[in-house]
Each structure stands twice: as structure tokens, then as C-alpha cells.
Amino acid sequence: xxxxxxxxxxxxxxxxxxxxxxxxxxxxxxxxxxxxxxxxxxxxxxxxxxxxxxxxxxxxxxxxxxxxxxxxxxxxxxxxxxxxxxxxxxxxxxxxxxxxxx
Amino acid sequence: xxxxxxxxxxxxxxxxxxxxxxxxxxxxxxxxxxxxxxxxxxxxxxxxxxxxxxxxxxxxxxxxxxxxxxxxxxxxxxxxxxxxxxxxxxxxxxxxxxxxxxxxxxxxxxxxxxxxxxxxxxxxxxxxxxxxxxxxxxxxxxxxxxxxxxxxxxxxxxxxxxxxxxxxxxxxxxxxxxxxxxxxxxxxxxxxxxxxxxxxxxxxxxxxxxxxxxxxxxxxxxxxxxxxxxxxxxxxxxxxxxxxxxxxxxxxxxxxxxxxxxxxxxxxxxxxxxxxxxxxxxxxxxxxxxxxxxxxxxxxxxxxxxxxxxxxxxxxxxxxxxxxxxxxxxxxxxxxxxxxxxxxxxxxxxxxxxxxxxxxxxxxxxxxxxx
Lengths: 102, 371
Ligand code: SF4
What we know:
Residues 1-23 and 94-102 of chain A have low confidence and may be disordered. Chain A is globular and about 35 Å long. By secondary structure, chain A is an alpha+beta fold. A five-stranded antiparallel beta sheet of chain A has the order 3-2-1-4-5. Helices cover 27% and strands 31% of the residues of chain A. Chain B is of the alpha/beta class. Chain B has three domains: 5-53 and 178-240, 3-Layer(aba) Sandwich (Rossmann fold), CATH 3.40.50; 57-165 and 250-306, Rossmann fold; 315-321 and 328-356, no CATH class. Chain B is built from 17 helices and eleven strands. Chain B has helices at residues 5-13, 28-36, 39-42, 56-59, 62-74, 100-105, 116-125, 139-151, 167-175, 188-194, 200-204, 217-233, 252-261, 291-294, 315-319, 343-346, 351-357; strands spanning 21-25, 47-51, 77-82, 110-113, 130-137, 157-163, 183-186, 210-212, 238-240, 262-269, 273-282. In chain B, α6 (100-105) links the parallel β3 and β4. The longest helix of chain B has 17 residues, at 217-233. Chain B is globular, with a radius of gyration of 21 Å. In chain B, 57% of the residues are buried. Chains A and B meet through α1, β5 and α2 of A and α1, α2, α3, α7 and α8 of B. Bound molecules: iron/sulfur cluster (SF4). Iron/sulfur cluster is lined by residues 313-315, 318, 325, 328, 330-331, 335, 341-342, 344-345, 352 of chain B.
């Protein structure tokens, strides 16, 4: 059972090359500032502008975490969910490649 | 205290499983987690994990990619598309331009984008040019396009929409006599937007166990355990194993924005054919932004293999979960990520590419009789 849940090293290397967004994968980010429907968000020290236009029924404020997909926040999440999601994304993609794609 | 992946795995190992259980996932992100975490090797041998229709790039109609290419080459437009679409080949002779990337190299103004907001920015920065946004994707990606349209887009931005819904492909498989799987892992982020209830039909209509999963091995294993227990105990219910993110009813704002801008229509899936009520089309009220209405159509029904997968490529059956990626005759030979023949090897969400990235190098002998 020792090989379980270990990442294949070669795949990790290959995934480092992934620059494109995964079209169905959302990534958790923390909101640092809000201006209308635009939010400044941060994850892994990298900042991005994110649209809050799809979150109008679920108001958010600075400090909240959101799942971001193709530049749009699709759901508010708890800090716990954000960090557990990041654990796997750290494994799946080099963090910078993932954030570059948001 | 939530269980760890190891604990979930042990719980699954402790079950008295039947000889064979086939669990299908329909999300490239799920397949990536499963492959990269090595879940196939870790689970009991009776459990088969089948990647199903989870890659929007793979099933994006060949004729739509062709149309996007022709618009970029023949009309005075800037064409923007999600980066994944650029390398998807269409069925043209090798000496001709066969992908958006090749069209770009030949001088067409084609720009990869990662967000609909970038399409707006490019249109704003080029007010005297027409910008065409070739928008392919499943619900999670199409909803932001709808949001963008509701918020308002510049006059010079047109949309070439190829949005698709995930569940009708699963419904089609289940309605065929040979679905090929016994339980379903429903997609996490599609359910976040559309609501987990979309998958209730799997339980109600087909009495098949189903669970919504997130993207960690824990969440995926929890969902697998749930479907296995449902099978063994004769229970059926849609178990939401990603409840931190997937809320009952989904994202209502997003659904309202989709409804306001798009109709659900019968739609073609590359290599598969028409699936009823599985595509999005812009409403008439948005005709001024509809590239299909504002620009000439280059559809050419006489083109060889129009709408099909490339010659020799088994993507259509890979997408439907009928064969594993490495059962394709040219997996790893003629077709590798460096030199992809079919869209499943092009896209980061394609099962062939994920398996290759996960280190699967051997070809498997297909069990399908005709081979
Ligand atoms: S290995 Fe290549 S040719 Fe074969 S099904 Fe996959 S993408 Fe298509």
C-alpha cells in the first residue's frame, strides 16, 4: 500500500509544464479588496482580478475565500475548504502555473 | 474528524465487493486526481474507474473549430479562444492549415485567453476591429460567458458559442442498452454551478448509485465508498461528498444568467453525434453578438470526415468510456502530447493526455471483439 497516493515523479515534472487553465477546475483564492463586481484576490502570493458577477445571491467581503474559475468567482467557500483544495492543487500543478491560468 | 485518504481506502478494501464494479467519472479534473494519486493501483482489483465524457475540448464539434479557423483566416477579425482549443486538429489534409495554432502561425490574429474578461479587454482595446470569442466548454465555463453577456459587452465583441451540458451525455449512455458502468461520480464544479439535483435522474430513472465528489483523493474515495455501499446495501441516493462547495440548488445567480442569455438546444458532440438538449445557443435578443448570425458560415458538408474524430483516433469511444485511452491503437505511438493526433491528447482534460502525464506508457490490448 506504500505506493498509494504518492505522485508519479515524471507526471509532476510534466505537470509543471501545464500553463493552460483546466476548463472545469476552480481554484480557491482569498479576496483582499472589492470594487463593485470586481475583487482583487490572492492565492499563493499571486494576485488576480476576479469578477463577482456570479455571486450576487451570496454576498462576499474582503477576507472571504471564493472558488475562482476562468476569472469568475463561482462559490464562496470556508478557509478550511480553501486550504484543503490547495493541498491537492499544490500536488497537481506547480502553484504558479495554476494561478497563471486563472 | 474527516477521514484521510488511507482510511477511506481501508474502508473500501473492507467491503465485500462483487466480481466487478465499474465507476464512471465525467470530469477531467476528477480523472486527473484519480490518475495522479494512483487510485487505480490502490483500489481493490474488482473496481474499475472509467473516465467518461469529462473533456469539453475533446467533444467540441470539429465543424466549430473549422469555422473558428476560417473566420480567423478569411475575415478581418481578432479571434480569441481558451488556450486549450488552439491545438485541436480538424480533419483537413496535412498540407493544409489544420488547427488554430497553425492558422495563427500563418498570420491570423488569434489570441489565447484564460478568462472571458480578457475577451472584453481585447475588444475594448481594439474598438475598430471585430473580436470573435470562440467559447467552448461545459456548464462551469459557459456560465461565466453568460455572466459576461449579462454584465454587458462591447459592440465589437461577437461570441461563437460551443457550450455543452454534461448530464445529457450521461443520460444518453444510461438510456443506451450498454451504459458500461455501474455507478457514477458526478462532477464537483458543474454541480457547484448547476446544483447537485441535476444528477438526481441517475438515481430516480436508472436506479444507479451516484455521488458528487470534489478533487482531493479523500473526496473522490468518499464518493466511491458511498456508491459502493449503495450498491451493496441496495440503497440509492445522491450523496454530496463535496458539500463544502456544492450547495443545494447550486449557484442561482449563474443559472439565471444562463437562462437570460442562452437556450438549451440539441447539439453535436465530435465523433458522437447529436445529443438532445445538450448544447447552449445564444438567444435571439443577443443576435447582435452572435458570430453565427453576424459572420458568414464556412460550413462545408462535403469536407472529408466533417464532424468526426481524426482518422485512426479512438477519442469518441474514449470520451464515452467504451475504451481506456491506452486501448487506442496509436496511443503512445503516433499519438503523444508532443505530437497529438486527437483532441483527447491535446487537452489538459483529455483522458489520453492525463494518462500519458500520469506515466501510463504501455498500450493495453483491447477487449473489444472487433480488434
Ligand atoms: S491516443 Fe490519440 S489518437 Fe488515440 S484516442 Fe487518444 S487522442 Fe485519439
